[in-house]
Every structure is written in structure tokens, then in C-alpha cells.
UniProtKB/TrEMBL annotation:
It comes from the Eukaryota. Residues 135-353 form the Phytanoyl-CoA hydroxylase-interacting protein-like C-terminal domain. One of its GO terms (cellular component) is cytoplasm. This is Phytanoyl-CoA hydroxylase-interacting protein-like protein. It holds the Pfam family PHYHIP_C. It comes from Heterocephalus glaber (Naked mole rat).
Amino acid sequence: MNPEKDFVPLTPNIVRALNDKLHEKRKVAALEIEKPTLGRAGILQSLPAATRPLLSQTRLPLPLPALKENKYSNKFKHKDVPTNLVAKAVPLPMTVRGHWFLSPRTKYTVAVQTASNQVDDDYAVSEWSEIIEFCTADYSKVHLTQHLEKAKVIAGHMLKFSGFYRKQHKEYFAYIREHHGNAMQPSVKDDSGSHGPPISEKLETIFFSCSPEFNTGKPPQDSPYGRHRFEIAAEKLFNPNNNLYFGDLYCMYTAYHYVILVIAPVGSPGDEFCKQHLPQLNSKDNKILTCTEEDGMLVYHHAQDVILEVIYTDPVDLSLGTMAENTGHQLMSLSIANAKKDPSCKTCNISVGH
């Protein structure tokens, strides 16, 4: 083995040269190589005694991992994937590990290239390695709990409210009466909001709101969903016979944020799903939505500084509430169906790599 040919030391000049080559090829995602701060002698001294003679006589190889875009729709972009590549002194053969903070529920393709120093101080870059494809998982309870903690920070004061409402067009309610015996049926939640929560495209629910207008205390008259509104007393959906779960926190390039909570009847299929995948909230004591008892009556409060979306996991009969008409603008352009979360917002994003 010729160490001068096959291996390269970690020096600033080499780092710059390698980065220049990789940028020319445009096949490395945000590559950053950190030079060890101890110096070669310091690194050797910090290693086990048995490995020092071997490393003192050789120079470290420098494999260079890289990511390539794949053919799928959920593919990463270079600017979306911060990359921190750290070279460490270890017994040969050496592996350089790259740490990428990847998006949840996304398909990726990974390939690797290596570079070696030549006698003329140039560098030979290998062909791409065999391609590995994988898909990242949904957010875990740990990740959702981190979102929940962020939601608590921005929730604000609690305001009293008395009911939930659901806005839709006239044809929707007519279809419910004709084909479902007057009972609204849960359907799979769309892919709006964060990309990682397990409720998206998996949990069947019915969407409700509870945030009233500040000046009237009543449901907003403007609506992106339809002119007709179903209103139901809060105790019909949210009571001691139901469990409360945190589902998501997101924004859509705006100053205000959305919080999704899930209400599930105890022991229902939706409740079992939520127990496995979502953080459960104490219905009587949390900073977002509460149900408490005062003088024998159930009293309800919600956080005023977030837009609260409540999804219910069981059918709801229209006879349990009343119908009304929204008199304001329809605002169809403000519909958030499948709208994506702002990935750059520091208020509602977490780093799953930490």
C-alpha cells in the first residue's frame, strides 16, 4: 500500500479542493467537512494506545458520502437537507459518517463516492456506489411531544367557549342526510399541515373548529369551506367519556399558527390508534383546550393565540346540533386542503436529528 497515493490528510487545502470538485459535479448536498481541532498529534494522543502506531505511520482515507435526488414526488432538495460531515481518526479502514436531518415520511436515494490523492496532488473521484433507497417514518410520540411543547409556548391566554362548528357546502349536508342516515362520517384526514404526524392520511376523523370571532364571540361568518355551518354544543363531543390527544402544530407562511387536537371516545378504534401514536393531554389541565366542572356544569376554554382545529374520530348525527348559514365571504382561495407547512419557521419546526 502506498499511503501517499491511497490516503489523504485532513488539511485545509485538501478540504477546499474536494469541495470544489464536488460542487462542480453538483451531486453533494450541502457538504461541510470539519477539520479536527486537536491537530494530528493531539488526535493520536487521545486514541487508545494500541491504535497509535498504526495511525502514526499512515494517512487517513477520506470517503465522501453524497445524496442524489430520487424519482419520487417526495424528494429532498439540497437546501432542505442540512449536512454535517465529520471526519474522525479511527483504526483503518476508516469510515466517515455523514449526519443528515431528513424529512419524515419521505423516500430518499443514497449513493457514495470516494476520493483519493494522486501523485500530482490531484484527486481521483470514484464512480457512484450501489444505490440504496429508503423511506423515513412518521413522527414518533417523542417528536410530537416536542411540537406540543412549542405549542404551549405560543398558546396564549385561555378563552371560554361553548360549542364546536363545522362549515361545508349545502351539497355535503344533503348527501349526509340521503346516504348516511343523517350522520356525518369520519374520513381520512388530508395531507395538510406537517408532513410527519401519523394522523395525516391514516386516521379517519370529522373536522371541527371552535375559535369564535373576538368581537362577537360567535363562529366567524367568512368561510373557505362552504356557506352552511353545523353547530354543536361542546359537551356533545368533549366530555369525560372522551380522550384528548395532540396531533400537530404548523403554519403556512403566516404569523399565526394552527394546532390540531384529536377527540376520541374512550375505547373506540380512533382512541386505540391515538394511544399508540399521539401524546395524550389532560382534558382538565392543559394550555390548549380544557373541559372542567364548575357548579355541576361543564365549562370549556381554548387557547386564544392559535387557530385550533379539532378532529373527532366517530360519526356525528346532525340531530345533535343546529344548522346556520355563513353570511360572510366564501374566501375559497384561503382553503387549506393539503396545504403544506412552512419548513423554515423556527416557531413550529423541530430538528428530528437531535
